[in-house]
Design goal:
Elements lengths: L6 E3 L1 H12 L8 E8 L5 E8 L6 E6 L2 E6 H6 L3 E8 L2 E7 L3 E4 L5 E4 L1
Parallel strand pairs: 1-6, 2-5
Antiparallel strand pairs: 2-3, 3-9, 4-5, 6-7, 8-9
Length: about 110
């Protein structure tokens, strides 16, 4: 695998990850895991969770002091995508801008491939 990771983290997502981790009772070593799982209303769904343990096949993406773990299987489905944090009137949430998604649901947490 080259040094270029095909998945990126926006500045707003990195800032929010740092805030969330700093608010935890034991923040040392925590990272946000981004995974793609089978399921959801469109075939695949994104999963976001705090995790301390890095798996052997994880790619670690670091931006502005925030760390994100992505397993290689999920990374294939996230090629050229970006993790973003959106804070709008209707709510704040992590979202993935994924050029590989042929369609996505209204909540933005699931998608399908062409």
């Amino acid at each position: 695998m080259s040094d270029t990771v095909p998945f990126s983290v926006s500045a707003s997502a990195a800032a929010r990850i740092r805030e969330i981790i700093a608010a935890q009772p034991d923040p040392e070593g925590l990272a946000l895991r981004v995974a793609v799982l089978a399921g959801g209303c469109n075939g695949f769904q994104y999963q976001f969770k705090l995790e301390r343990d890095q798996a052997a096949d994880d790619v670690v993406i670091e931006r502005d002091g925030a760390r994100v773990f992505v397993d290689t299987t999920s990374l294939d489905l996230l090629e050229n995508a970006e993790l973003e944090f959106v804070d709008k009137l209707m709510g704040a949430h992590f979202t993935v801008t994924n050029p590989n998604a042929a369609s996505s649901c209204g909540c933005g947490t699931s998608f399908s491939l062409a």
